[in-house]
Amino acid sequence: MTTTDPHDDVRDPELPGRLLLVERDALIPLLRSRPDSDFALRTACPGWTVRDVLAHCSSALMRVVESRYEKDVFSPAANDRDIAERDDWPHARVVDELERGMTEAGPVIAAAGGIIDPVALGEWVHAGDVREAFGVAGAYGGDGLPHALALLARITRVKGHVPLHADLDDVDEPLRLGGVPGDGPPARYLGDAATLIRLYAGRPLVGTRYELVGAREGELNIFA
User: Fold this and answer.
1) What are phi and psi of 178, to 5 degrees?
2) Is 64:101 a contact under the CB 8 Å cutoff?
3) Residue 23 pLDDT greater than 90, yes or no
4) What is the pLDDT of residues 103-149, one digit of tens each?
5) Are 102 and 109 in contact (CB under 8 A)?
6) What is the C-alpha to C-alpha distance for residues 84 and 131, in angstroms, rounded to an integer?
7) In this structure, are residues 112 and 72 in contact, taking their beta carbons and an 8 Å threshold?
8) What is the C-alpha separation between 179 and 160, in angstroms, rounded?
9) Which residues contact 112 (CB under 8 A, 6 or more apart)?
10) 3-class secondary structure for the chain?
11) Pick the residue with more confidence: 73 or 22?
12) Which of 113, 154, 168, 179 could cysteine-pair with 160, CB 3.0–4.6 Å?
């Protein structure tokens, strides 16, 4: 599997699209195999069911595909409106729209110069939210994880986020995240890659084991 070097500061415009395609091939068959009752399960996103998460994801990607960006796009209020617009859709229609968005959004994100790269990472995290609600092991892992880590590293560096050196139990090379360290050393993380994703996405950490030195958990959340 080919992915971007997470230590390379040159943007790979195809990376977000690769992440979406890998996740599409994993998530869509899973969704089509689940009974309707599973779409009512609660997720890690406060107030959102699996169905709500999927409706949010599909609508966000179609906004990207169709270049529809209202003034408050991706705000909580806009997200709630997008979900409400799909209230009377069958689950299968939401999944079909999600599949189309994951297929077609990559080239649009690539051409945007980096400003909407985080959309792809957010979609991948939400897929993890759905898997976790279903009780699937390794919810924030799978074949997309290397691409997600590379994209996370790139996004945090561009944002000048908290400098952090991550020694990952399940990845050979350390990962450098965030901006250039100042006078002191970067923060340090020791643990597995999926838990690192949970930290940066602000997801529940119950049952995880890791060490974080030099930064607080809330400082790492890029979606806060």
Assistant:
1) 80, -175
2) yes
3) yes
4) 999 999 999 999 999 999 999 999 999 999 999 999 999 999 999 99
5) no
6) 23
7) no
8) 4
9) none
10) CCCCCCCCCCCCCCHHHHHHHHHHHHHHHHHHHCCHHHHHCECCCCCCEHHHHHHHHHHHHHHHHHCCCCCCCCCHHHHHHHHHHCCCCCHHHHHHHHHHHHHHHHHHHHHCCCCCHHHHHHHHHHHHHHHHHHCCCCCCCCCCHHHHHHHHHHHHHHCCCCCEEEEECCCCCCEEECCCCCCCCCEEEEECHHHHHHHHHCCCCCCCCEEEECCCHHHHCCCC
11) 22
12) 179
Q: Letter for the amino acid at 24?
A: R
Residue that has been written with the tokens 């009512």 in this structure: 40
Token digits of residue 186: 């970067």
